[in-house]
Amino acid sequence: MIAIVDYGAGNLVSVKKAFDWLGQECSITADPAEVERSSKIVLPGVGHFASTSSLARSGLQEEVTKAINRNVPFLGICVGMQWMFSGSEEAPETPGLGLFPGNCTRFPQTVKSPHVGWNQLEVASTSRLFRGLTPRPFVYFTHSYFAPVNGTTVACCEYAGRFSAAVEHELLFGVQFHPEKSGETGLRLLANFCAI
Amino acid sequence: MLTKRIIACLDVDDGRVVKGVKFTQLRDAGDPAELAKAHSVSGADEIVLLDISAAHQQRTTLLDTVRRTAKELFIPFTVGGGIRTLADADAVFASGTDKISINSAALANPALITEIAERFGSQAVVVAIDAKRHDGSWQAFTHGGRVSSNRDAFEWALDAESRGAGEILLTSMDRDGTAAGFDCELTRGVADRLNIPVIASGGAGGAAHFAEVFEKGHADAALAASIFHYGLSSLGDLKQYLNNNGIAVRWPC
Fold first, then answer.
1. Which of A91, B88, B191, B231 has the fewest CB atoms in 10 Å of its CB?
2. Which residues does B contribute to its contact with A (CB < 8 Å)?
3. B230 pLDDT band (50/70/90 cuts)?
């Protein structure tokens, strides 16, 4: 069972709908015990980075960390991916999980923010998440903060500079875009995650 | 490169897609769920469903239609019409939509923008502005274009942005349904003043109109309804045309 972690940040129906369509058993949950029992964890997120602070208070962060240590595959989406980094300048008082090095920063004033719409990726051929997809797929973004490019980056995107659109390390995966809103490409990527 | 979005709009009345000329004279164009899926397959970047009967009949959006349409749609989906409170918005989000669009209710109670944005994020709040030319400027209208708010459209767009709107859906009432082209002057006026994306609407008649509103109107996205429903211009042909004319679009999808 895939646990879609609900920490009170926005609307998770679209994410569940995509897994339902793929025929995957999944549940939107705020219950640490259900996270503990799950075989895969998805942490979606739209909105403010500060909302991730409720994960620590509710005991969900502790269960997520334990599951990651047990090698349960984990996928962070949008703010969920940003949470995997050290933190974000959007909420400096709220630490991230620190699974990936670096801080998330805001797009400069020179471009419209949020970055909304379909943008093209440059995907590394080694990526498991993008297996079977074209090397330059279009995906749907909506965000004002972004994670830096580092050694775990498997997909780059260009908007006022290059940023990390997807990161991958062993069984940890993060995507800045919304696979549940990225048509066939996104469904294929979610199916790849389910198959891991 | 961030691409320009092409948005297919479904104007829905009583569970059926309809399209009017200048907000009246409705023609039946089919089932919302079927049309949304067909548009998505042929290359639409987003779907907007507007319950056009909602504002004047004082009833909420048909949640059942929304649920049915959202079920097999995996591109961004916006629903508008009849959303007056946070609870109305909540019900629409729970039915599977990604963004809500508010118009009359936002003008009557601008705090609603902030309320919904704080709960669901700014990316989920589209403020729709129906603008009509009046003495060299544009006024924002409500209730499906029947009532003037007496507010300047540019000023209202800026206010909506500062209150937490994530996008502006800007309809030229003068052009809507005419197929005479988007109002580039209106679109540019709003797009250049704002730091959030502006979706141009009203007047699409052919591929060249889209190129024009992206280049001259500085629109981030363009929306049309009838030209897609009746097959006058296929989405694929439109995107191919834009691509050939140096405008970045998601093509092939």
1. B231
2. 1-5, 40, 45, 70-72, 74-76, 93-96, 98, 120-124, 166-167, 195-197, 220-221, 250, 253
3. low
For residue B245, the model assigns a pLDDT of 96
Question: What pTM was estimated for this model as a whole?
Answer: 0.94
Note whether residue B253 is domain-resident. no
Give pLDDT tens digits for B66-85: 999 999 899 999 999 889 99
Query: A-chain residues within 8 Å CB-CB of B98?
Result: 11, 14, 181
Residue B228 lies in a domain: yes
Question: In chain A, what residues touch B221 (CB-CB under 8 Å)?
Answer: 117
Domain that holds residue B176: 5-244
Separation CA B96–CA A163 (nearest Å): 29
Residue B252 lies in a domain: no
Catalytic member of B11, B45, B176, B220: B11
Cβ of A181 within 8 Å of Cβ of B75? The answer is yes
Domains of chain A: 2-195 (3.40.50.880)
Span B150-160, pLDDT tens digits: 999 999 999 99
Question: Distance of alpha carbon B114 from its chain centroid, rounded?
Answer: 20
Q: What CATH number corresponds to the domain at position B218?
A: 3.20.20.70
Q: Please check whether residue A116 touches B, CB under 8 A.
A: yes
pLDDT digit string, tens, across residues B151-200 = 999 999 999 999 999 999 999 999 998 899 999 999 999 999 999 999 99
Residue B166 lies in a domain: yes
Give the end-to-end CA distance of chain A in Å, rounded to a whole number: 13
Question: Taking the CA of residue B155 as centre, how many other CA atoms within 13 Å lie in the half-sphere pointing to its CB?
Answer: 9
What is the number of alpha carbons within 13 Å of residue B249 lying toward its C-beta?
30
Q: What mean pLDDT is reported for chain A? A: 95
pLDDT value at residue B58: 42
| Contact call for residues B7 and A79 (beta carbons, < 8 A) | no
What is the complex's ipTM, to 2 decimals? 0.94
Number of domains in chain B: 1
Q: Is the peptide bond before B252 cis (omega within 30 degrees of 0)?
A: yes
